[in-house]
Structure formats: C-alpha cells, structure tokens
Amino acid sequence: MTDTQLTIDETARLREAFARVPFASLLGIRIHSLERGAATMLFDVRPELTRMEGILHGGALASLIDTAAAFAVLSLLAPDEQTVTVDLTFHYLRPVTAGQVAARARVVRAGRRLVNVAVEATDSDHRLVASAMLIYAKSATAIQASNKS
Asked: Hey, which bits of 2-113 come out as E strands?
C-alpha cells in the first residue's frame, strides 16, 4: 500500500459518508477515486443543471468542486472529525454545455485547524473549465453544534 492509498475501511467510511450527502445525489455527483489527501468526483451535464442558454450553472460546478475538496480533506481526518468550508476562491475558465465534468481535488497543506485544497475541473475533452482554492476548518464539534440550533 502506498502513502496515498486508503485502507479498505477508510474507503468504506468515506463512501458511507458520501451516501449521507443528499445534495450530491441530487446533482448526480459520483465518486471516481479516493486517495489520502485527494478525491476525484464527477457528474454529467444535464438540462436541470444548466442556465437558460444551455451552459452549466456555476453553482452546480462550484458544488461539484466543493464536494470533491471536502472528501479530500475528510480522507485525512479521524472518523470523529468533521470539516466545514470557510473560504472558496473560484475561477470559471470556459463554459460547459454537455458531457461530463470531473473535479480533481488535492490537499496542498493540512495544518492543525485549517486545510488548504486545490481543485481543477475538466470537461469530457480534458480541457480545464474551472480552478479553485478552498480552505476548510477541522472540527469535531462545529457541525454537531450547528445541527442543534
């Protein structure tokens, strides 16, 4: 097993966590690959995800990127730890009207409290359509506390 390869149990835990994200299911996001500190997710462009001109909605693309990045972070955390997005800097580079979009996320720095993630999204022709930098906060309690409000 390499340093980036997850154990069977770690992969199962992440896949179970992904199954509990109904918004990802709504968008049709699928896991392509999971590694330690990296994740690739994809979805198909379909009419429900486009603007009236037939171009993929930026919010759908941002959600794909955020989901891939979150699972890259989760792959580094203990089972009782959670993460939340605290910053997303996004660059739309080319419109997408059809096919599949893949978001490849990799952790570039993991500190005690914050994790920086770089993501590139490509279309079916492997052209770069968006890039993003995200920052996540690690917390065992942040999500649990917000769910009680």
From this structure: 30-35, 38-44, 82-92, 100-110
* 23-75 pLDDT per residue, tens: 999 999 999 999 999 999 999 999 999 999 999 999 999 999 999 999 999 99
Classify domain 8-148 by CATH number: 3.10.129.10
Identity of the amino acid at 22: P
3-state DSSP assignment of residue 52: coil
8 A C-beta contact, residue 66 and residue 85: yes
Partners of residue 90 on adjacent β-strands: 132
Angle at 119 between CA 45 and CA 89, to 5 degrees: 95
- Model pTM score: 0.91
Tell me the domain boundaries of the chain. 8-148
The three-state DSSP-derived secondary structure of 78-108 is CCCCEEEEEEEEEEECCCCCCCEEEEEEEEE
- Residue of 73, 37, 63 lying closest to 121 (CA atoms): 63
Contact between residue 32 and residue 42 where contact means Cβ atoms under 8 Å apart? yes
Tokens 């993003």 found at: 132
